[in-house]
Design brief:
With 387 residues, the protein is mostly helical. The protein has two domains: 3-277, ABC transporter involved in vitamin B12 uptake, BtuC (Orthogonal Bundle); 286-374, Orthogonal Bundle (Arc Repressor Mutant, subunit A). The chain has 17 helices and three strands. It has helices at residues 3-12, 14-39, 45-64, 69-93, 98-121, 133-136, 144-163, 165-173, 175-180, 185-207, 209-224, 230-252, 260-278, 284-313, 323-329, 335-344, 359-375; strands at 321-322, 348-351, 354-357. The chain has a three-stranded antiparallel β-sheet. Helix 3 packs across helix 10. The longest helix is centred in the C-terminal third of the chain and has 30 residues, at 284-313.
């Protein structure tokens, strides 16, 4: 099956269209919130929320006796929010560090959820069939009404992100300043955390408790490699999440029995890996290319300045010097290779086996020396822009 036929299924096959739309909603919403989670260094928060949501799903089912999407989502949201609130309380009221508090809450809530799920399954209630799919997701069972509900909740989340854009930006980058100008940072923290909980809840049925945490981490990590601006990062993160959702849904449709949730996570993992390697802003490959280019530039600068310094001692900046003399002055550089490159650029010339600067080379060295005196030197990685 080629790509055009695969894409055509979105418009002709009800199941694939429904799953793809649901996955796109999950990816978009979780991607947008992922940007904030990553920038706040709370990437593991999604893991805590998703695992803490499981007992809420089971308790909601126990109370109502049916697997209606909205009550189960409400139960998951309440449990996820309580788990996050408990983690924050442990961190602020005790000496336990945040990572340990996350581990405690995750283990306790997930263990409670599994225990309740096992108890429900032993009761012989036919309605509980498929309830365990919340652990790993059941995207193939999505129906149109569930996708509509997910889309409505997603639109509410995105609208609130836009409404509180300035406040969330201050919360992420300068919490202390936000407090000094009168913002209730505690309330903003709770609102943003609640939105992340809702994003987790939206994706539970499709991706599952175990894998949903990846959707709160990976899109933001991938987007961060491409930009230093918050607005661009949020948009790119949402696009990456939606792209992973749709591509995962389509790929899983190619093979019977291939679970959609794990394929979606694999798709966002591929996007993240590609970003880590090839993004021009921070990618490993481009970073190595830049480092190699910088090393070459430094070697070329060292050769030019050495030729200039030795020539000035002879009273003539164009005075030639033997290759052995230049090598002795720069023992760690591949002098011959650098000289050939500089000769191609018209900055040095070979004179009877010796090497000398050209007038253009002298002018460039003098310009470099003037700039060094006026501006000085310094390096540093650009930070994250807030606009």
């Amino acid at each position: 099956m080629n790509i055009s036929e695969l894409l055509n299924l979105i418009f002709t096959d009800y199941t694939i269209r429904t799953v793809a739309l649901g996955a796109a909603v999950i990816g978009l919403v979780s991607g947008v919130l992922s940007a904030y989670a990553v920038l706040r260094k709370q990437s593991l928060m999604g893991d805590v929320m998703s695992h803490a949501a499981l007992p809420g799903v089971v308790i909601a089912f126990i109370l109502i006796g049916v697997k209606a999407p909205l009550p189960l989502m409400i139960g998951a949201a309440v449990a996820g929010w309580l788990g996050t609130l408990l983690m924050m309380t442990i961190t602020t009221q005790t000496r336990i560090k945040e990572d340990s508090a996350m581990g405690i809450v995750l283990a306790v809530f997930f263990g409670l959820g599994v225990a309740l799920l096992s108890w429900v399954q032993r009761q012989g209630n036919a309605n509980q069939s498929g309830l365990d799919k919340f652990i790993f997701g059941r995207a193939a069972a999505l129906v149109q009404d569930e996708v509509v509900l997910m889309a409505v909740l997603g639109l509410v989340v995105l609208a609130l992100v836009m409404l509180f854009w300035k406040e969330f930006k201050l919360l992420v980058f300068d919490r202390e300043y936000a407090a000094t100008i009168g913002y209730n940072v505690r309330l903003l923290d709770i609102v943003l955390t609640t939105l992340i909980v809702v994003a987790v809840v939206i994706g539970l049925e499709t991706v599952g408790v175990v894998l949903m945490s990846a959707m709160i981490v990976a899109p933001g990590v991938a987007a961060r490699q491409w930009t230093d601006r918050l607005g661009v990062m949020v948009v790119v993160s949402g696009v990456f999440g939606a792209l992973a959702g749709v591509s995962g849904a389509l790929i899983s449709s190619l093979e019977r029995g291939l679970p959609t949730g794990p394929v979606i996570v694999l798709a966002i993992s591929v996007l993240t890996l590609g970003s880590l390697l090839f993004a021009p802003n921070r990618g490993v490959i481009w970073e190595r290319i830049r480092a190699r280019r910088n090393r070459r530039q430094l070697r070329a600068t060292a050769v030019l300045e050495t030729l200039y310094d030795m020539a000035v001692h002879h009273g003539d900046p164009l005075h030639p010097h033997a290759l052995g003399t230049i090598r002795a002055a720069l023992p760690e550089s591949n002098v011959t290779y650098v000289l050939r490159k500089l000769a191609n650029e018209g900055l040095v010339r070979e004179v009877s086996g010796a090497w000398a600067l050209t007038p253009a080379g002298v002018e460039q060295v003098q310009a470099m020396l003037r700039n060094a005196r006026v501006e000085g030197t310094g390096t540093g990685e650009p930070g994250m822009a807030t606009a």
